[in-house]
Amino acid sequence: MNVTRLVFLGITAACLAACEGGGVDIKVETSDNSVDNSTSSSGGGSTNPCASYTVTGTTEVRQGTFDGRNCVYGAAFVGKTNPLKTDLTIPFISGVHIFQDSLFVGENVSSGAAPAGGTGPKLTIAAGNTLAFSNSADYMLINRGSQIIANGSPAAPVTFTAFADAVTNTATANDVQLWGGMVINGNGITNNCSDAERQNNQCHVVSEGQPSNYGGNDNTESSGELRYVIVKHTGFEVAPGDELNGITFNAVGSGTIVENVEVYSTYDDGLEFFGGAVNVSNAVVLYARDDSLDFSDGYVGTIESALIIHWQTDGNRCIEGDNVGESRTNAGAPADTAPIAEPIIRNMTCITSNSDVNTHGDSEGVLVRQGGKLRLENSIIYAGYGTSVNGLSSNECYEIDGPGDVSKTFAQNGDNFHVRDTIIACQNPIQVDNGVPDSLPNGDSVLDWLLNSSAVGATYAFNVANTVITDPVNANVQVLQAGTYYTTASIVDASGATVRPGTGLGAVQAGSDWTSPWAFGLRSNNADVPLWFAP
C-alpha cells in the first residue's frame, strides 16, 4: 500500500463500516447568518475548515462536518437531486473531503438554450485535496454552463477517488467500480446533433450515467481547468447499462484546460471524448480495463503526450476511435456523418500486456473504425513486455475497420488520416484474419500503408518515417529503456541498425519526466504495486 495515503482517524469503526455500505448520512451543518457556524462539530473547539455555501435566495448556510481531520458532506449539502447552484470552493485540508452522495454542479437543461460555458456555478478545488466518494454509485457531473477548476501542482495534485482508497485504505491496485467517475458536459459540437438542432438550441444529447444533456454549437467553450488531477478506481454502473469512465468529456470545448491528468484503474475507458474540441496535454492512463483513449461523435481535439500502460492481465485498446458509434450506424446513421472525428494524438507511448482473456477484449494498440480518422504522430506502440514478462505474442497493434470502407478510404487518401514518425514494436503489427492481412479498398495491406510501400502503385507519402519491428524481444532491439516506460536514446531494430534517435518519440524521456513526482503508480514511493514489467 502507498505509505503516503491518508488514514481516516475521526470516525468510529461502526461508522466506517456503515459509510462503506452507504448506510450512514453524517448530516451537514446548516444555519442562517445569525448563528455562529465556525466551530467544529467534534467538540474540540477548532475552526471548521470544511467547504460551505449560502443557499441561493436564502440566508441558510450549508457546511460540511469536521471531525478534526476529515470533512464529510451529506446529501443535504450536494447530491444527485440536490446539485450545486452557486459557486463553491473546497479549501485545502490535510485530511479527506468525503462525499456521501454524488457531486453535481449546475442544473441540467434538456430543452431550449443551455447556459453558455462559464455562466453557471463554479466548483473550485484547492491544490493537494483528496475528494473521496462513499458509495459506488456516486459520481461527479459538471453540467453545461458550469465549470470545475481543479488546479493541483506536481507536489500537490488533486485526487478524486473512493472511500475505500483514501479513507479505509483497503483498495488495491486493480480495484475498479469503487465509484462512478467524472463526467463533464459541454456546449461543443457533436455529430449526434444536426446543424439545424445546433443552430436552434435543440442539441441535447443524453449523457451516460443519470440522464443529463450535452452539446451545442461552441467548440471554443470552457468547462473549466484540470491541472495535475488524478482520478482513481472508477467505472461503476451508475445507471442501467452505463458504466462510467475515468473522465468523460461530452462535447467539451477547446477553452477548457486539461494538463497533467491521470486515470488509474477504471472498469471502462480512461479518457473518453464524445465530440467537442478539448485539448489534452500530458495524460497518464494506467490500468483501464477497456480503452485508454476513446473518441467519437466528431471529436477534433489534440492529445499531446499520453502514457498508456495496460494491466498485466487486462485492458483492451490504447486508442479506439470512431466517428459514430455502432448503435447509431446499426440504426441507419452514415459512418461519415459530419463533422468527422479527426483528432491528433502525438507523442503517445502504448504498452500492451498482450493478454487475450480480458474484461473487454484483447490487449491491443490502435483501432480506428466507424468512419473515424486519426493523425498519430511521434508515438510508440510496444508489445515487448507482454512477451518477455507474460510470454504472449502481441495482438494486432494497428487496425482500421468497418463498417464498409469509410475509415479505410479516408486512410488510403490521407484525408486527415496518417501515421508519422511512429515505432510499432509488435509481433503482429496489423490485423490478420485467416492468413489475410487487413487491407485498404485498393488491395494494399495496412502494413503497406504504414510503411508507404504499395503493391498496386499507390503512394502514401503522408505517412513518413514509421518503423515496424516484429521481434520486439530480440536482444538487439532498443525502443524503451529496459523495465521502464522511457524512450531509449536511439531506436535500434532487430538487425542492430539504429533507426533514428529516440528524442521526440513517445510520451516520456528519462531526462524530462513530466509524470514525476505527481502521477500515481509509476514509482515505488507513490504506488500500490510496482509496474508489472519493472525489473
Question: What does it look like?
Answer:
With 535 residues, the chain is mostly beta strands. It is built from 7 helices and 39 strands. It has an 18-stranded mixed β-sheet that branches. Strands 8-11-14-20-22-24-26-28-31 form a 9-stranded parallel β-sheet. Strands 1-3-2 form a 3-stranded antiparallel β-sheet, with no helix packed on it. A hairpin with a 2-residue loop joins strand 18 and strand 19 (242-243). Mean pLDDT is 92; it is low at 1-45.
Note the main sheet.
18 strands, mixed
- Stretches where pLDDT is under 50 for at least 5 consecutive residues are 1-45
Number of helices: 7
Q: Distance N terminus to C terminus?
A: 19 Å
Taking all residues together, what is the mean pLDDT?
92
| Structural Rg | 24 Å
Percentage of residues assigned to helices? under 10%
What is the subunit arrangement here? single chain
Principal-axis shape equals globular
Layout of helices and strands:
Elements: H1 13-21, E1 29-31, E2 52-54, E3 61-63, E4 65-66, E5 71-73, E6 88-90, E7 97-99, E8 103-105, E9 122-125, E10 130-133, E11 140-142, E12 147-151, E13 158-162, H2 163-166, E14 182-185, H3 195-199, E15 205-206, E16 213-214, E17 224-234, E18 237-239, E19 242-243, E20 247-250, E21 257-266, E22 271-274, E23 279-288, E24 293-296, E25 302-309, E26 317-321, H4 326-330, E27 344-351, E28 364-368, E29 375-377, E30 380-382, H5 384-388, E31 398-400, H6 406-413, E32 418-420, E33 423-425, E34 432-433, E35 436-437, H7 446-450, E36 467-469, E37 478-480, E38 487-492, E39 498-501
